[in-house]
Amino acid sequence: MEHVKTYNALELKHRNGDLIIEGPIRTSDLESYAFHEGLVAFRPPAQQHKALVGISKLPEGRIIIARNQDQIVGYVTYLYPDPLERWSEGNMENLIELGAIEVIAKYRGGGVGKALLEVSMMDDAMEDYIVITTEYYWHWDLKETKLNVWEYRKVMEKMMQHGGLEYFATDDPEICSHPANCLMARIGKRIEQEDVQRFDSLRFKNRFLY
Q1: Regarding beta strands 166-168 and 95-103, do their DSSP bridges make them parallel or antiparallel, or are they unpaired?
Q2: Which of 99, 74, 73 is nearest to 87 (CA)?
Q3: At what angle do helices 149-161 and 112-120 cross, to 10 degrees?
Q4: Which residue segments constitute the domains of the chain, with CATH numbers given?
Q5: Where is the N-acetyltransferase domain (predicted)?
Q6: Which of the residues in the chain have pLDDT under 50?
Q7: Would you report the helix, strand and coil content of the chain in percent, each value rounded to 5?
């Protein structure tokens, strides 16, 4: 499958400084921008910046960023699922995962996450993919936001809906380990029914065991 990436961008007015939301960002541009020290949700900032650069080099890898001048203050990533996860077991070339979305505290609450998802889906090539995201409560910044798991889950669902992602049921053990965890997905307009069925078989691997 050919992975086509068409750049899109928009300007977002924000009380703490206007932002450019853009991508899929080129590796060279990603390397040239500073990475805000507040982007610590998944690993130390320098390591996360390096990880994003690596993703941007993958054929399917997509990085959409939010930047204030030359500093990245938010991002969302898309790539194939981890080989150790069930979502990779179908070897589906047209299934990619929204692997991470993060915005620094200073810019939360201003529609930055929504804009990252909206710019992501401006690319017509996204209609050739099933896009999934697995939401786990232990990745959520409950301390900083002062939200409980259900309030945060509601915020995440509403934000993901701006990218066209909807709730999908699954029997995945890790997702089922806590009721606040969830699977969300967006089925591209050009996805064949056969691939929808393959996705369904990944969602419910144990349906015949009950």
Answers
A1: unpaired
A2: 99
A3: 40
A4: 8-203 (3.40.630.30)
A5: 23-189
A6: 209-210
A7: 35, 25, 40
- Chain centroid to Cα 75, Å, comes to 9
Task: Tell me the C-alpha distance between 103 and 140, whole Å.
Answer: 12
Give the model's pLDDT for residue 138. 83
DSSP string, 16-49: T--EEEEESPPHHHHHHSEE-TT--SSS-HHHHH
In angstroms, the CA 183 to CA 38 distance is 27
Residue 143, classed as helix, strand or coil, is helix
Q: Using the structure block, give the residue that is written with the tokens 């077991």.
A: 89
- In this predicted structure, what is the pLDDT of residue 210? 42
Q: Torsions phi, psi of 202, nearest 5?
A: -75, -35
Nearest of 128, 92, 112 to residue 21 by alpha carbon: 112
What's the rounded Cα separation, in Å, for the pair 194 and 197?
5
What residue type is 108 in one-letter code? R
Q: Are 89 and 50 in contact (CB under 8 A)?
A: no
What's the pLDDT at 38? 95
At 147 the pLDDT is 86
Q: What count of other Cβ atoms lies within 10 Å of the Cβ of residue 6?
A: 11
**Structure tokens that stand for 78 in this block:** 């898309």
Closest CA to 9 of 119, 138, 149, 153: 119
Beta bridge partners of 186: 131
